[in-house]
Description:
There is one protein chain. By secondary structure, the protein is an alpha+beta fold. The protein has helices spanning 18-32, 47-57, 69-80, 100-105, 111-119, 152-162, 172-185, 242-248; strands spanning 5-10, 36-41, 62-67, 89-94, 123-135, 138-144, 147-151, 189-195, 198-210, 232-238, 263-268, 270-275, 280-283, 286-305. It has 2 domains: 5-121, Probable inorganic polyphosphate/atp-NAD kinase, domain 1 (Rossmann fold), CATH 3.40.50; 137-298, Tumour Suppressor Smad4 (Sandwich), CATH 2.60.200.40. It has 8 helices and 14 strands. Helix 1 (18-32) runs parallel beside helix 5, helix 2 (47-57) crosses helix 3 and helix 6 (152-162) packs across helix 7.
Amino acid sequence: xxxxxxxxxxxxxxxxxxxxxxxxKIREHLxxxxxxxxxxxxxxxxxxxxxAHAASTDGYNFIIVVGGDGTVNEAANGILNSPNRxxxxxxxxxxxxxSDFIRTVxxxxxxxxxxxxxxxxxRFLIDIGQVEFYHDGVKTSRFFVNYCGTGxxxxxxxxxxxxxxxxxxxxxxxxxxxLVCTLVRYRNRDIQLTIDGKSxxxxxxxxxxxxxxxxxxxxxxAPQAELSDGKLNVVTVEDIGKIELLKAxxxxxxxxxxxxxxxxxxxxxxxxVTPEERMPVSADGELLGEGPVSFRLIPQALAIAx
Length: 306
């Protein structure tokens, strides 16, 4: 397959269905940018993994995602499980609501500008995280490109999944409703936390293992994170009260929360979280399962277009 020939994976439901409406215009700009490509639409959760795996295995050296952070995660997992992963580059045209991964990569947020950006086909290698967790009682694993976590943020993701989503309502409203509901009922959890072999017991709100800097639609959760530095940023929020959390919450958008006395940041290549009770696990905005959970770094594992 020629190097300038791409497979474009489109999630038409991303951005509350906006991707489907924007696709024809994006398609025109991709063609005008000089890219030759085939395209496929995702039809169900996990379909992006299948499509990206098949495309990479079939010799497509360039796979472009048109969708949100969850679709990027699926495509990355498909590529990383392909025998042709070392020769496959992933590009992103973000049409989702979060746009967190591209904030760190530097890809333009505007989909039409992103088409020109990707046509240059410059690439760089980024680190990847791998998480092991339990899904329906079975231990499984998943790669993540941006972040993975357990605790409060994952309970918000779980609550968001349970919210009804009429087609005329944006994804932001269910997320905000889930955030408020979770805050009211959430209890911090007692866990054993092990970072690069050093363990401690404690009560925590959240443990976030970040490869990129942003999550939650622009929250600068790990302001010092780099995608290619050979380390994961482990952001832990200890036993903080609800009022104190509400006061500190706006600081996350500027990244100044890391100076709070109950927030710690460590650099690591492996992390384990063993909770005393159920804790959900999420990655790149998608709910995965529950703990106990372990994370590890895979350095320079995925080529990204920029």
